[in-house]
Amino acid sequence: MARGVAAQPAEAALDAVVLNTYPIRMQKKLTITVDEQVYAGLHQVIGRHKISRFIESLVRPHVVSRDLIAAYREMAADEAREAEAHEWAEATIADVAHETR
Hints:
By secondary structure, this protein is mainly α. It is built from 5 helices and no strands.
């Protein structure tokens, strides 16, 4: 080992490898047929090189399922968000307690 260089624990080296890897997503080309006015409107409103991204953003929520358990775990891990949600819930309960029934 070189002078002045501390040895890295195996876990730290593994973390460095994991943090520097990126998922590879393949793209597929799709040909669709649309009305001439829709086509012209997409070019005018969205822009020529942005249409694919626009259509994908509209379609994705309807065809790609999310793992809800993982999403809820991720939200729960966000401590600032959880504290804000708790504060909001407590304030709502206090408001409801004073309403007439």
